């Protein structure tokens, strides 16, 4: 330290004449800016590729544009109409004008499909009346054309429903995702039994994820312990075996299980040959096969965090406990195990949350009772083209995941989690 | 990226730099279902067409996801010129305005095609059917009627059925004694649907559900099931390439169509129509049956087919005696509700 700066320091100022506090703040601000600049690309990437699509998905679950956009005049004309009866000519005229325009724009099917969700069979009636309106003489009267086309158009219940479906936002998809619906009077009721499936699927998804988490923990904990205590040469070989599945695609691994588990498969063959079985047993297309294949895939995700925590625990702790008189079981449960909990928490949370989103494995090795929420999200996205329902199911899955994360955070504390 | 795509890309780049894009405007991108089916289209349509006209055809594959077509049309970047679609997609895509209306005058009118197979927005190309089959090496005197599929007393063992109400509800009603021409009439009533599910209840615990077309032959071959519903071409394919001895039961077969559709925003409508006209000629449609056992949608193609090929087609008179044709309007109206009810039923 040179002699010139010493008095300045003593006076509480730096060489540049600023106070130490200000100079420190400036240095910190600079490093904060640097770290922000380093993080920005990732942040932008996450916002663009994750947050925005997620927002769109959540919005799709309540968005209800089909009727409001395609039949604007009808929706406006129905404002003055009170529910309980069948509207008069002006509403029919508005609907006729809207439908004729929709026929030209080929959007009648969209409206029909949306109404069909709530009133099955309505789709073809829209298409039919649309074609009839195109051919009808201009100027009306329109109501008789509708009346002649189908009894649906003189049904007060249909009109109340149409008015509700005309709103720009809807709770329909979200309600349906938890097996609820609005009945004809607009009151909240349970879904009819032969259409109520999503709550079952949700509980099934949670239950399968829990089973997989528990079985990966039971299998993985001893492996992690062995890995952490073996000499490096052996540990590396074992580690390779744990990591090997990572290099094979999930599809290939799942298909391999089909070969092993089917009734005339390798496993059944061996057991019959050994005389362990008299009759071949069903190992696949059921819950057992699903949990087994998923456990196999998820095992490394549980093992690695536990292993990395165990690696950091000094063997001296156990030796100290034993030398102070603790038995092996007591020393393990009171000294060693509590220290591994952050790893166990991280591994289990990771596996549980990843399991919630499984799709291909249950589809291939599970039975109809093992399909999880993702299966239905894919079904509604690809097959039904009902993106509102798919989004609502996605939103429910997201909400459930958040709830479990929050519970986990309250019980274990996310700050205690160590991933490596 | 396949070799042809690279070549097309390189050519397109060259054309752009030379300012001569028009020379390549006719190149087509055609999307189908992949596998043996697309291979048969390649042999019967794509290769001969390129040989004849020098127009390059880029092939793409999809799994019938109408969502892909919708996403492409909605984003305004239609890269596919012609798409092989199933009847449900043809109907839905038309209703929702993502497929163009077909000008049948370019094909000599609707009457040229098998009755009931023409769609407003898609022109039929083949007739396939959902049948059930068994392994004749394992069962000597096999099942004969659609009722046998549901008869677990006479034919014990597991059955593989497709995991969709489509087909299964129709089979159940036919097995329950509903005449072929009354099936959809009965299904339109709540009691009819209940009746179909009740019949399915009787074999529910004996069913392995399949989702991909490759599964039924595999399930039959491994002995996992004694009977399996399947698309007839897959069973034919397994017999031909894997030397299996699977027998098809044609009784109560459910016929359906595959069709060519043109998505909205297509690059060159004329070039696409020119190809579709070629693909809808009797000679080429007859040619396709050499590679896969699906019937031609064009009535005039049948005389061009050799008898030993004809006997394996769903449209052969001998096989089609008790055939039921899919009713796309019924499935358009009730599909979503029935699929949900079916999944709920499965979960019980």
Q: Which bin fits the share of residues in helices of chain B?
A: 25-40%
Secondary-structure element order of chain B, as H and E? Answer: HEHEHEHEEHHHEHEHEHHEHEH
**Percent helix among the residues of chain A?**
over 70%
Q: What's the tally of helices of chain B?
A: 13
Q: Uncertain regions of chain B: pLDDT < 50 for 5+ in a row?
A: 10-24
Distance between the termini of chain B: 45 Å
Q: Round the Cα radius of gyration of chain A to an integer and report it.
A: 32 Å
Question: Roughly how many Å apart are the termini of chain A?
Answer: 42 Å
Count of individual helical segments of chain A: 20
What is the beta-strand fraction of chain A? under 5%
Quick rundown:
Chain A: InterPro entries: MetI-like, MetI-like_sf. The complex is a heterodimer of chains A (420) and B (348). By secondary structure, chain A is mainly α.
Structure keywords:
heterodimer, A: 420 residues, mainly alpha, two-stranded antiparallel ribbon, 20 helices, 2 strands, disordered N terminus, B: 348 residues, alpha/beta, ten-stranded mixed β-sheet, 13 helices, globular
Describe the secondary structure blueprint for this structure.
The complex is a heterodimer of chains A (420) and B (348).
Chain A: H1 5-10, H2 20-60, H3 65-70, H4 72-78, H5 89-105, H6 108-118, H7 122-135, H8 143-149, H9 156-165, H10 172-177, E1 180-182, E2 188-190, H11 198-229, H12 232-243, H13 250-261, H14 266-273, H15 287-311, H16 315-323, H17 328-356, H18 360-365, H19 373-383, H20 387-411
Antiparallel strand pairs in A: 1-2
Helix pairs in contact in A: 2-20, 4-5, 5-7, 6-7, 11-12, 11-15, 11-17, 15-17, 16-17, 17-20, 19-20
Chain B: H1 3-18, E1 28-32, H2 35-53, E2 57-61, H3 66-74, E3 82-86, H4 87-95, E4 122-135, E5 159-162, H5 165-175, H6 183-187, H7 190-201, E6 207-210, H8 215-221, E7 227-231, H9 232-241, E8 246-261, H10 269-279, H11 282-288, E9 295-296, H12 307-310, E10 324-325, H13 328-346
Parallel strand pairs in B: 1-2, 1-3, 5-6, 5-7, 8-10
Antiparallel strand pairs in B: 3-8, 4-7, 4-8, 4-9
Helix pairs in contact in B: 2-11, 4-13, 5-7
Keywords (chain A): Cell membrane, Membrane, Transmembrane, Transmembrane helix, Transport
Domain ABC transmembrane type-1 (chain A): 202-408
Subcellular location (chain A): Cell membrane
């Amino acid at each position: 330290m040179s002699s010139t700066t010493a008095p300045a320091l003593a006076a509480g100022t730096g060489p540049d004449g600023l106070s130490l506090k200000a100079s420190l703040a400036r240095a910190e601000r600079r490093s904060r800016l640097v770290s922000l600049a380093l993080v920005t690309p990732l942040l932008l990437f996450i916002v663009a590729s994750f947050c925005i699509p997620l927002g769109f998905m959540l919005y799709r679950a309540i968005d209800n544009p089909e009727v409001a956009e395609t039949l604007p005049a009808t929706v406006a004309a129905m404002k003055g109409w009170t529910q309980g009866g069948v509207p008069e000519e002006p509403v029919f005229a508005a609907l006729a004008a809207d439908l004729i325009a929709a026929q030209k724009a080929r959007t009648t099917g969209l409206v029909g499909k949306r109404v069909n969700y709530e009133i099955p069979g309505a789709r073809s009636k829209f298409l039919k009346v649309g074609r009839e309106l195109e051919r009808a003489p201009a100027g009306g009267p329109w109501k008789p054309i509708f009346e002649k086309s189908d009894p649906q158009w003189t049904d007060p219940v249909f009109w109340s429903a149409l008015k509700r479906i005309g709103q720009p936002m809807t709770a329909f998809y979200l309600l349906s995702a938890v097996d609820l619906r609005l009945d004809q009077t607009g009151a909240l009721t349970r879904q009819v039994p032969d259409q109520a499936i999503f709550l079952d699927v949700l509980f099934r998804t949670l239950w399968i994820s829990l089973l997989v988490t528990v079985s990966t923990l039971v299998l993985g904990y001893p492996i992690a312990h062995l890995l952490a205590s073996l000499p490096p040469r052996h540990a590396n070989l074992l580690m390779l075996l744990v990591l090997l599945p990572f290099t094979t695609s999930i599809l290939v691994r799942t298909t391999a299980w089909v070969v092993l588990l089917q009734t005339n498969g390798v496993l059944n063959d061996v057991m019959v040959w050994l005389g362990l079985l008299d009759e071949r047993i069903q190992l696949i297309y059921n819950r057992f096969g699903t949990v087994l294949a998923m456990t196999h895939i998820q095992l490394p995700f549980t093992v690695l965090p536990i292993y990395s925590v165990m690696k950091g625990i000094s063997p001296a702790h156990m030796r100290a406990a034993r030398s102070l008189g603790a038995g092996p079981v007591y020393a393990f449960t009171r000294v060693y195990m509590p220290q591994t909990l952050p790893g166990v928490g991280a591994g289990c949370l990771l596996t549980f949350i990843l399991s919630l989103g499984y799709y291909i494995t249950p589809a291939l090795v599970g039975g109809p009772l093992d399909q999880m929420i993702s299966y239905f999200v894919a079904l509604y996205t690809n097959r039904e083209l009902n993106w509102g329902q798919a989004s609502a199911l996605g939103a429910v899955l997201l909400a459930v995941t958040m709830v479990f994360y929050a519970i986990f955070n309250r019980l274990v504390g996310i700050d205690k989690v160590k991933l490596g | 990226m396949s070799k042809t795509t690279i070549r097309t890309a390189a050519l397109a780049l060259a054309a752009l730099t030379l300012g001569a894009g028009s020379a390549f405007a006719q190149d087509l991108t055609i999307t189908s279902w992949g596998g043996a089916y697309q291979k048969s289209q390649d042999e019967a349509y794509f290769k001969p067409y390129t040989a004849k006209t020098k127009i390059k055809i880029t092939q793409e594959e999809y799994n019938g996801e109408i969502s892909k077509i919708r996403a492409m049309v909605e984003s305004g970047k239609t890269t596919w010129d012609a798409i092989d679609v199933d009847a449900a997609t043809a109907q839905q895509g038309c209703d929702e305005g993502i497929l163009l209306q077909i000008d049948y005058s370019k094909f000599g009118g609707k009457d040229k095609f098998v009755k009931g197979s023409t769609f407003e927005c898609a022109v039929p190309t083949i007739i396939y059917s959902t049948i059930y089959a068994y392994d004749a090496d394992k069962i000597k005197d096999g099942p004969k009627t659609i009722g046998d599929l549901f008869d677990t007393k006479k034919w014990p063992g597991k059955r593989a059925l497709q995991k969709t109400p489509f087909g299964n509800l129709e089979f159940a009603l036919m097995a329950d004694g509903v005449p072929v021409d009354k099936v959809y009439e009965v299904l339109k009533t709540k009691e009819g649907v209940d009746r179909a599910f009740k019949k399915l209840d009787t074999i529910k615990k004996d069913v392995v559900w399949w989702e991909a077309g490759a599964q039924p032959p595999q399930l039959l071959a491994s002995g996992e099931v004694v009977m399996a519903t399947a698309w007839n071409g897959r069973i034919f394919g397994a017999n031909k390439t894997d030397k299996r001895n699977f027998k098809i039961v044609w009784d109560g077969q459910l016929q359906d169509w595959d069709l060519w559709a043109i998505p909205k925003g297509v690059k060159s409508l004329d070039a696409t129509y020119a190809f579709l006209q070629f693909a809808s000629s009797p000679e080429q449609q007859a040619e396709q049956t050499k590679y896969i056992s699906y019937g031609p949608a064009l009535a005039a193609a049948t005389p061009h087919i050799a008898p030993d090929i004809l006997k394996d087609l769903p449209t052969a008179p001998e096989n089609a005696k008790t055939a039921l044709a899919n009713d796309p309007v019924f499935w358009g109206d009730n599909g979503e509700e029935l699929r949900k009810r079916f999944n709920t039923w499965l979960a019980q």
